Amino acid sequence: MKCSFFFFLLFTYNLSEGQKYMFQINDFKAFSDNVNLDGSAIIAGERLRLTADKPRQSGACWYSAKKIDFTGGFETEFTFLISSDSSKMMPGDGFAFVIQAQSPDITGGIGDDIGYKEIPYGVALEFDTKDDNEGSRNHINLSFYSPETKTYRRYATVHEIPEITDGHSHFTRIIYRDGRLQVYLDSYLFPVLSVKLDVAEKINSPDHTAWLGFTASTSDQHSYQDLLSWSIKELEVAPKDIAADSVAVKETGTIEVKSRKLTISVWDYNTIDGDIISLKLGPDWLITNYQLTGDKYVIQTTLIGFAQDLILYAHNVGMVPPNTAAISVYDGLSTQRVSLESNLESSEAIKIAFTGDREN
């Protein structure tokens, strides 16, 4: 699927409870101070080029502003393009999204190493474009480092994926939550891969922090391997004082949206009386333990699947019960507003349903 991006944004929600760290890059040149490049990786215009269309290269790019805290999980989305100057040359060898706790200045070998297999204690999702006795030349593969053998172990491989060397851009979304890693490729509906994996154990990171980035390589087969955009968001840890399964949830209606990229705002439209709330969309806590004010709290999020419930939970009951919140949902075309109420025993919710012209 071809994707277009029109703006550059940087979010750094990192300092207080109810706020999590997030960044989004649509122009790597404007963001060059916060990425470390190694080996053959360069910034070419607005894109990040992991390898040129040349033989025997190895490159890496790491987000270097900070280690990502994945205690509550993380989600990352990126758009990539694999292309070649020659229609006769088979592409190779591939690139990988890599999670590791060693250093933001490291890369591995060429060829089938995909630029990461010399990095100890890593988890890598390969986008492989060369068949090295693996069953196909177009597949994804999840691997992790084994300290016993000091090599990477193949954990899961998927061959039934879109053709990623067709000269068009493709997007990937990776979600790690509650010990499960899910991979979406050119679709927000169903993951192409979903596996249980203890990332902290595999990368030897007791504090649940990691450097995130990309590696790539070529051999006698080669291609341009470019990143066009990249975003990462740390996910909220579930609030300890809310037993979501024991709170009665009442759905009050449905909001239909034409885009999956949503801006959700929440504020107290009534008496400002100390209401403390959490907001959950599907399985993800968007904000936690947040005291409502008359100012809008703005959240950027992505709608996964056909529809998800947006639920308002209460941590207390303000001076004028129940807790009330105004919520607006902007899909890039229009803004829709609703109000929700909650107390300690029950919560109201609104269903957000995707009704775009093309389901993806």
From TrEMBL:
InterPro entries: ConA-like_dom_sf, Intracellular_Lectin-GPT, Lectin_L-type_dom, Legume_lectin_dom. One of its GO terms (molecular function) is carbohydrate binding. PANTHER family: VESICULAR MANNOSE-BINDING LECTIN. One of its GO terms (biological process) is carbohydrate metabolic process. This is Legume lectin domain-containing protein. Residues 22-240 form the Legume lectin domain.
